[in-house]
Write a structure and sequence with these properties.
Number of strands: 4
Helix content: 40-55%
Largest sheet: 4 strands, antiparallel
Number of helices: 7
Shape: elongated
Order of helices and strands: HHHHHEEEHEH
Distance between the termini: 54 Å
Amino acid sequence: MLQPTAIKLGQWASTRPDLFDPTFCVQISRRLHASVTPHPPEHSRRMLLQALSSDGLLGGIVGGGGALTLEDVFESIDLKRTLGSGCVAQVHKATLRRDVANRAWEQAAGAGSGSGGDGRRDVVVKILHPGVEESVAMDMALLEAGCYVLTEVRNPCPPPPLLPAPATIHV
């Protein structure tokens, strides 16, 4: 099974027919842009509750201090059905509570703007698959080690002799 970093690099390569053979790009795109089996709803719920904890990502927007429940933030959220699932995360449909949406819009617009949002409350929530963070961290460490070897290890073997440049053709 390919790791998320390898899949993402392959997906990027599939969008670059200027760098790679176009047939290769089409074939790799078909293989790497397929849906991934979704993780269980319990994992999504656990990750959201962690983000809603007092020191979590959403604490500043929702406010109130202390841990929050899903009901404190969402009017509705469908964790049983995914809109899509990829190599890194999956996406769920949700509707923010009106007060939460208004605070989020105010923060996005800048403090004191008084905009109160534009009424949009339907959102998608993207949740990482289990183990993705650790997997990507390991991939990055391996890439960093490979870069070190390529840039810092001096002349482990001599470079091949240069071939003569082809003659220039004048018309």
